[in-house]
Amino acid sequence: MFRAELVKLKRSTTWLIALVLPFLAVTTAAINVANNPDTLDSGWESFTSQAVLFYGLLFFSMGIGLIAATAWRVEHRGTNWNLLLTTTTRPIALVLAKIAVIAVPVAFMQVVLVIATLFTGTFVLNVDGAIPWKFTLAGLLAIVAALPLIAAQSLLSMLLKSFGAPIAICLVGCVAAVPAITSPTLRPLRYLVPQALNTRTLNLGSVAVADSGDLIPADVISILATALVMTAIVAGVSVVALRKIKLR
User: Fold this and answer.
1) What is the DSSP letter of 172?
2) Among 191, 180, 193, 198, which Cα is nearest to 226's?
3) pLDDT per residue as tens digits for the range 89-147
4) Which of 112, 135, 140, 196 has its CA 20 to 30 A from that of 223?
5) 67-78: per-residue pLDDT in tens?
6) Counting Cβ atoms within 10 Å, is residue 222 exposed (0-12), middle (13-18) or buried (19+)?
7) Taking a C-beta distance cutoff of 8 angstroms, is the pair 5, 98 a contact?
8) Residue 51 in contact with residue 57, Cβ under 8 Å?
């Protein structure tokens, strides 16, 4: 089933989304660093922090919303939804296949972000110093941290026929993630709002977001555990919802 779902995305716009958004983030960061050499003068630390700032707050999560909506768009056209339900013997298989296939372009988006940042910093901005391994690891860790949002947006895109409605809900989550990350009072919500988990993970070791944590075992384990538990819960809800839809 995963292969069949991947074929559906082969000629879709998901790959363009996964390519453009990280390039946009890196380009914006490079322009900011180049135009503010007096304030952004910490080399790789300044550049990578700028690269993940708006990307972590908005681009990454919204990209997931767009990819998830695209992955479910085919199912809501014509009779494809009924055909899918009649050919799927196990709802959990469909739910996991959708999550996995959405995760593929999301992972590609992260790889593009890391490579584009390192290339731009080295050959365009001529940043001195060794390659920032913390930025690279945080970028890869964000693929796992993104799973709850992937599952949630997949659920929304499954339930809502509108292409734009799940994306709009994702934007609301991005707005809610800002106080969850920045406010000491609301900080516990960063474990409940998937967009906040993305923002925190991408900013591990970064100076752009205060108290986002670092690449230490305690922070990494808490992020991984939260991501896996939240994904399992949302996947379970998706299975229940899919079974109810099949009865209609």
Assistant:
1) H
2) 191
3) 688 888 999 999 999 999 999 999 999 999 999 999 999 888 888 899 999 999 999 99
4) 112
5) 999 988 877 776
6) middle
7) yes
8) no
Place of tokens 């001195």: 128
pTM for the whole structure: 0.93
Q: Please name the amino acid found at residue 209.
A: V
State which amino acid sits at residue 31. I
**What pLDDT sits at residue 4?**
73
d(CA 181, CA 176): 9
Give the sign of the dihedral formed by CA 127, CA 200, CA 17, CA 40: negative
| Alpha-helical regions (H) of the chain | 2-9, 14-35, 44-54, 60-73, 80-87, 91-119, 133-145, 147-159, 164-182, 194-202, 217-246
The number of beta carbons lying within 10 Å of the beta carbon of residue 106 is 23
How many residues are there in the chain?
248
Q: Which residues contact 8 (CB under 8 A, 6 or more apart)?
A: 71, 74, 101
For 167, list phi and psi in degrees, rounded to 5.
-70, -40
Taking the C-alpha atoms of residue 118 and residue 122, their distance in angstroms, rounded to an integer, is: 6
- What does each C-alpha distance from 198 to 67, 144, 150 come to in angstroms? 16, 9, 11
What residue type is assigned to position 240 of the chain? V
